Amino acid sequence: MSLLIPVTSPAFPLPRTALHYDLTVAGDLDATTMLGLRQEVAHAVQDHPAIVLLDVSAVSRITPSGVAGMLDLLRIARSAGGDFRVYGESRVLAGAHSALRLTTVIAVYPRRSDALEAAR
Amino acid sequence: MGVKQLTLVRVLAVLVVAFGLVYVGWRWTASVPWAAWFIAVPLLLAETYSFGESLLYALTMWNAKRRRPAPVAPAGRTVDVFIATYNEPLDMVLNTAIAARDMTYPHETFILDDGDRPEFRRAAELVGVGYITRGPEWEGRQRFAKAGNINNALFVTSGEFIAILDADQVPEARFLDRVLGYFDDEEIAFVQTPQQFWNVDPRDPLGSHADLFYGPIQQGKDGWGAAFFCGSNAVLRREALMALGLTRFSRAAQGRMRSALRAGRSRLTDLLSEMALRDPAGMPAVEDALAAMGRADAQYRTGEVLSEITWQLQKSFHQAVLTHDDVSAAVVSELDAVLELVEVARTDQALAIQPLDTSTITEDMATAMHLHAMGWSSAYHHEVLVHGVAPEDAGTMLTQRKRWAAGSMQVFFSDNPLFMRGLTLGQRLMYLGTMTSYLNGFAAVVYIAAPIVFLTVGIFPLKASALTFLLYFVPFFVCCQIFFQVAGRRSRGLWRGQQMSFALFPTWIAATVSGFAATFFGKHLAFSVTSKTKTQVGNDYRAVAPQLIVMGLLLIASAIGIYRCIVGEAPLAATVLTLVWVIIDFLLLGVVFGAARYRGPGAGVTDPNPPTEEATAALAIVEHESSAPRTTAAEL
Fold first, then answer.
1. What is the DSSP letter of B377?
2. Contact criterion met (CB below 8 Å) for B504 and B398
């Protein structure tokens, strides 16, 4: 598995016009939700590097499986040369990240545009 | 353990400790012939170690807990049952899978086939259970044996609870109903039930019955809040495992990136030096990458989010490759390797998070210990609900015991419970007791060497009269034996367990050395799957050759000692005492004869869960389908 191949543009690894996929999760972010998200992210980066954006603003409960699953989605996206970004104001996610000391590991952006811009 | 028995056990435990302290105190202060230090000191250390083990055993038994029946399993819980297999035969796995599927509490059953065998997939489909194997993301990655197999399944399933069964462990229909109620307590991370083997001869030559461990010892550990997870016949809470994986991940992430950045820079610097001669055209790209590493280092020092640092780094590396011509594939591959090294999302592995511990080959013990350190609790449910298969030959048994011991010692050296944050004192001692029990191999060597030295060259490792020695030693020894019998009442195989603990000294020593080498020298420890079928047909004396040699040496030494006594070169009392010692050594070591000759149970021992008609039919279909293409080809 290569993080550098395929190379997409001489200017940026992912051009500003690179494909991006929007995903939204509402209610519980748990093992069951993650099963679906995992398939969608894997599908999104299957043929080419892409930016996958996940809106978590409507998440009302998050479990360790949900947090672990998000880190695995990041791995899946980056293994394919793409990226996975999380955005949206979510107190439960912020709480979980803080409790698990993940605030310095993975960023959660307030808005979609911030997440997309940072990826580019 | 009832109240009366527990009281008796505690009284005996106090006596063992008291007599033990008196004996060991006397040994250290008044009985060491320092002139013969080369044998006297090892013997003193071995005896002190044995006393320490008795102390830990007494402590374990002190708190033996007999739990009340678990609350009734509430409806609505979601459970995934994992049957882990690698190379076990299909009929065995299918039998387990059907029994697991038929458990009464609603659940889903999955065969976790690490052998990726098409016939298993087909058979799973036929009997209506799920089939999970590793995906392409595992290719070229570390697989982490059984722990990796289960971790892989955890990310493609979603049940709140995970029941783990080895391929040969056939559950009763009530298994889940009996244990799920414990999880009403939200702090419970796992419930362990006993492992019981049906294919064991009544004489149990291989010491397979583990009634003492899956009884008083586990109950004792449970009393201290440290019931062990033993890898099978257990139910675990998914979220506890995931929380453990996340905690370990986040704790390691910062340190891992710091060292990865350092290693990456050093790797690129070395690459530049090499390229100056063989590939100067590619140097600018590597120089750019090195500059990017410097920026990443600065970002790390200022506390930037790790995933952002690695993303920036990936972008910079891309740019370095794309803006310079003539970057060879070898350089791209090297840059790729550095990126993977640094990437916080663990693109170097098949999973970002490893819920079950993957740092040792005894993933069960390590996982349980880390869960306890996080504040989770556990329960030992003392009721046989699963029936499994024990090794049927000495070689397989020794391989299995060596894996347990090597893994435990690996954890002892790398994650010593005495220094692990979060464990209570009781939990520390319970883990320590199990791990240090494998150091008994070294003590056994001393207990064998000391009489040989005296009988052959006349150097006695004690400076005391035989009577004084007996006065100090016998009360301690007798108390220990009575305590062992009382604490292990109703447990089969107490004597066999003592024999095995002593006679398998080469295995324990080899395992300790392997665990040490794996921890401090990075030597690979192989996870050898215990064969569930007989691998040896005839006698297997080769497997116990070290013990046979030692017994030969003891015999020769005894003959020399008797001769020396007869001709007046050795004192009678010391010679008699030493010969009694040799006899005890023989009684303990003698277990290897039966083990080497063992060929499995007799016809009287039958499988309590013989293959069902459904299993037989599924096997026939799979066999037919597997052979059909070959038949067609032959006909053509």
1. E
2. yes
**Mean pLDDT, residues B45-63 taken together:** 96
Domains of chain A: 20-119 (3.30.750.24)
pLDDT in tens, B546-573: 999 999 999 999 999 999 999 999 999 9
H or E element in which residue A24 lies = strand A20-29
Sole residue written with tokens 């504040």: B375
Give me the residue label for tokens 């699963």: B386
Spatial CB neighbours of B511, under 8 Å, sequence gap ≥ 6:
B401, B402, B404, B405, B406, B408, B409, B438, B441
H/E element holding B163? strand B161-166
- Cβ contact, residue pair A64, B242, below 8 Å: yes
Strand partners, B234: B164, B192
Instruction: Determine the residue of chain B that is closest to A107 in CA distance.
Output: B305
Helix (H, G, I), strand (E, B) or coil at B606: coil
Mean pLDDT of A90-118: 89
Minimal Cα distance from A63: which residue of B? B239
Give φ, ψ of B577 to 5 degrees. -60, -45
A15: chain B residues, CB-CB within 8 Å: none
Length of chain A: 120
Give residue-wise pLDDT tens across range B467-489: 999 999 999 999 999 999 999 87
What structural domains and CATH numbers belong to chain B?
A: 3-62+434-597 (no CATH), 257-342 (1.20.1440)
In whole angstroms, give the CA distance from residue B395 to residue B533: 12
d(CA B628, CA B622): 10
Q: Are B318 and A68 an interchain contact pair (Cβ–Cβ within 8 Å)?
A: no
pTM for this entry? 0.91
pLDDT tens digits, one per residue of B243-267: 999 999 999 999 999 999 999 999 9
Would you tell me how many other CB atoms lie within 10 Å of the CB of residue B34?
A: 8
User: CA-nearest residue of chain A to B139?
Assistant: A1
ipTM for this prediction: 0.88
